[in-house]
Amino acid sequence: MNNILLGRTGLKVSELCLGTMTFGRETTEKDSHAILDAYAEAGGNFIDTADVYSTGISERIIGKWLRGKRREDFIIATKVRYPMGQGTNETGLSRKHIMDGVAASLERLNTEYIDLYQIHGWDPLTRLETTLGALNDLVHHGQVRYLGASNMLGSQLQKAIDVAVAAGLEPFMTLQPQYNLLARGTEWELLHVAREEGLGVLPWSPLAGGWLSGKFYRGMEAPPEDSRIARAEKHGWMERWSRRNNEHTWGVLDVLFAVAEETGKTPAQVAVNWLLCKDVVSSPIMGVRTMEHLVGYLGATEFRLSSEQMARLDAASDPDFGYPYDSDAEYMRVRD
Questions:
Q1: Is the confidence at residue 336, as pLDDT, over 60?
Q2: How far apart are the first and last CA of the chain?
Q3: What is the pTM of this model?
Q4: Which domains does the chain have, with CATH numbers?
């Protein structure tokens, strides 16, 4: 894998980030360590987790793996925001929860510092200045090196950056949004802010929860019962069949499959490569459950789509958002 700059942090990270949400949930500790070993052997150095993933188990698995490793060789990212227990203050972005959260994550990760500490979402119940002040203290105390944000609206992200700059606080340096061929609403405000502010963009769910994996195709009556898409229906997740089973999705998949055949690559690899070709993207996050998944993802770095193939994928996946985004569409396309 190539190394790329993470926004304006000055950090160089792998062009694919290893996501570890499955560690301790669908992937055993032994298999997780094997995946981490293979990722590192392939030149990977960027590992993303969150305190809430399996309620800390993912962080613990990574922490055990880091023992005996050169800590400075790896960029470790984690997150804070969501409930970590039943206690009244074990959630949110209050100073208390952030301080408690970072201490617990440092212990589980077996490290003295976290390279990238991200808020996992917006907290409307906490004053923004309080959250940003607590995060700023973590950087200046050496517990955290850089700050990032995930799952925010464009207006929220811009406000957080503006408030931090005005108050002389450490600003967010990265954005972790959902972004893929079936989730392009991210482009219209969030990616515009990220580009203008120089944030590194770390797309999660690059395969849209499996829709872009190559396992689903026009004419299917229902997803396999053991698939993530089938489980999404039960849990109300955004990838659910009833939400995505429409002509727009099948039109995107038609073109995805055609480009995959032309390139001799899998549909999943083409979908990830589409992200790698976007200049605003730093490092897509691989949702890896098995070694087979990792190998498939790594294959996405071995080629680049042509401008003509990118244009076809862009056209097929372009959603119609209407005003005011349609009036700005030509400008945005020129910038891309």
A1: no
A2: 24
A3: 0.94
A4: 3-209+277-304 (3.20.20.100)
